[in-house]
Structures are given as C-alpha cells and as structure tokens.
Specification:
single chain, alpha/beta, Rossmann fold, Dihydrodipicolinate Reductase, domain 2, eight-stranded mixed β-sheet, 27% strand, binds nicotinamide-adenine-dinucleotide, binds ligand LLHOTIJI
Amino acid sequence: MVKVVVSGALGRMGTMIGRIVDEAPDLELVGGVDVREGTLFGTEVVPAARIDAFLKEKKPDVLIDFTVAAAAVENIRAAARNNVALVVGTTGFSPEQRETIRGAVEGHVPAVISSNFSVGVNIFWKLVREAARELGDYDIEVTEAHHRYKKDAPSGTAKTILEILDQELGGREKVYGRVGETERKGEIGVHAIRGGDIVGDHSVLFAGNFECIEISHRAYDRAVFAQGAVRAARWVSGREPRIYTMQEVLGL
Ligand SMILES: NC(=O)c1ccc[n+]([C@@H]2O[C@H](COP(=O)([O-])OP(=O)(O)OC[C@H]3O[C@@H](n4cnc5c(N)ncnc54)[C@H](O)[C@@H]3O)[C@@H](O)[C@H]2O)c1
Ligand SMILES: O=C(O)C1=N[C@H](C(=O)O)CCC1
C-alpha cells in the first residue's frame, strides 16, 4: 500500500485526486492539508500550519501538492524534511521559487514535478519539439485558455512550451499579447484567455507563407490531470532523491 496525503485537499484538483486515491485498492488516503476546513473522503484535513506534525504522525509515502506557488514551496520543504516523496502539480513558480524547490528536493527526496500531468499534453510537448526543429523559420504564437478562477498566467503548461521552444530555437524574445503598432519580428507571441469553466486548452501555431500548422491539446475533464498525478505517485515512491518529469514516469 502506498500511503498518500493530498495538499490543496479541498481544491478542484485536490478533491478529485482524493477520490481517485480513496477508490484505488493499492493506495491508502491518509489525509489532507488545506488552509480551509473540511474532510477528504472521511480522512482528516489539517491546516497548512500543521503540515510538519501531520507528516510525522501519518508517515505517508507520498505528498501530492496542488495548491498555489508560495504554499507549495513550504509544503515541498516540509515533505523533504520528513522524508516524504512528492508529486507537485502546482504552477506559477518564480525562478527563485524553482531554485528553492530544487535545493529542498535534490539529494533528499524523489519528486515528480510537472506543469501538466495529462498523458496527452506530454505527447503534445513532444510534437511541439519536433515541429520546432523543422519549422524554426516560421512565425510562432502560443495560446492558452483556462477557467475564470485560474490564478497564474500564462499557464504552467504554456511556460513549459516556451522552455521547449527555447531549447530548440534559442532564447527568442517573448511578446505577451500585442497592442498598438507592433511590427512582427522574430518574437514568440504568447496569449492567455480566461473564462467560464474552460478546463485547459493549449495551442502552438507555426505560420509560414501560404500555410500554417497548429498543434493543439484540449482537456475536457480535470480527471486527466488527476489520474496522471496518481500514476506519478505510484511511480515515485522509492526512487532516487531527485526531480523527475512526467515524461520519465510515462517512459516517453
Ligand atoms: N500540473 C497539472 O496537471 C495541473 C492541473 C490542474 C491544475 N494545476 C495547478 O494546480 C494548482 C491548484 O489548482 P486548483 O484548480 O485545484 O486550485 P484550487 O484553488 O481549486 O485549489 C487550491 C487549494 O489549495 C488550498 N491551499 C492554499 N494554500 C494552501 C496551503 N498553504 N497548504 C495547503 N493547501 C492550500 C486552497 O484552499 C485550495 O483548496 C494550480 O497551481 C493549478 O495551476 C496543475
Ligand atoms: O486549471 C489549471 O489551473 C490548470 N493548470 C495547469 C497549467 O497551469 O498549465 C494545467 C492545466 C490546468
């Protein structure tokens, strides 16, 4: 049995992950952490301030974190202090927060950290890399759309797309939205849309003369992220103490 604690337990993702873990015969849901009060499928949800004591008491194998960036950094540090493996889906980290996470995790605990746990997006990233290799002289525009409650922009998935494009094409200038007189040069345009209950859309447009290629992914249900995170939780326990990608989990 892999024992799991979920932080962000009462959120959109935390609740869905809690249900999947609760229903899995090979996993044991031992509780949750949140700043709000509640329970998670009959297990205790403790305030974030008590995370250290809770991890010591419950001794989970894995902490799955879907919270907000500042909170996730603290939860990751707590998990590392208590020798608990990690699955982190939270997005919106600053470069400094990423460094803090790296320092807390590397050499201490195994952690799968991904801006997107869906299988489809992990394949989509591979397709974007392949297209960038072949179409580097085309104009490139990255567009993402999410629900009205999303806190960070651009999305973590879009930032990962930009990292892939940087790796393949060098660090091109990014232009976040365009307004006024804007002559197009070699930049990459980045556009974020927020509205309604959009689960998560991403597309990369490669535009040339007389033709365009657009690579897109659309999530219809958060279950694709939640199932991927639980798959990573099963995989991560007992690995070497370093940061892993979801592509490593999937063997891509
Ligand atoms: N990687 C992926 O596949 C993926 C998929 C979906 C969402 N996300 C990311 O996951 C995060 C959460 O998304 P959501 O839609 O579930 O948000 P949400 O707002 O519904 O849930 C976040 C939860 O975290 C709680 N929280 C806040 N501070 C906390 C703390 N210190 N400790 C514990 N819990 C705390 C909130 O009370 C809330 O219940 C976001 O960063 C989002 O971008 C990633
Ligand atoms: O709903 C969200 O928030 C999502 N966040 C991730 C991101 O920022 O890329 C993944 C898609 C859903």
